[in-house]
UniProtKB/TrEMBL annotation:
Biological process according to GO: respiratory electron transport chain
Highest rank taxon of the organism: Archaea
GO MF entries: cytochrome-c oxidase activity
Protein name stated in the entry: DUF420 domain-containing protein
Species this chain originates from: Halobellus ruber
Taxonomic lineage of the native organism: Archaea, Methanobacteriati, Methanobacteriota, Stenosarchaea group, Halobacteria
Pfam families: DUF420
Transmembrane segments: 12-32, 47-67, 79-98, 118-142, 163-185
Keywords: Membrane, Transmembrane, Transmembrane helix
Amino acid sequence: MQLRARDRVPELTALLSVVSLAAVFGAVGGAVPPSLLPQAPEAAVDAIPHVNAVLSTTALVTIPLAVRAVRRGRIGRHRTLMMATLGLFAAFLVLYLYRITLRGTTAFGGPDAVYRFVYLPTLGVHILLAVACIPLLYYVALVALTRPVHAIRESRHPRVGRIAASLWFVSFLLGDVVYLLLYVVY
């Protein structure tokens, strides 16, 4: 399996990216009927945005710790932290897609000026970065999981990983700002 995946990283990256983005846009666009999903108690569905904020904020800690670890040559710690961050992201995404499929998007309750000049630009950049991160994250994860450490260093993983980690961090940060605007401030 590793040898085949190793030889197909670009193709697997493209396939996984298309499937992931189709799932997200399908859920947001209402293509997934809510009746297909198991029904959680209302309180659990109501808690999802708050749980996701905790997951995002935790990722804001694990990403810089992972970057610091790799800079110090602690490859095992870097891998552990990045896999933890991927797990946080996967949990976030599953919960987000579940809630959005059941309830749809959350309306902004603040003033129109904040909506136009703060909320929408923040949300737009967050979404663009999240979409841009998907193929980068798949690529660096697949390279890391299919190669020995010495080969990872010689690949594009370090360069692409720096870009992916930076964009991912900002996307998580802006996601937390969106959460604060939707559920705390307004």
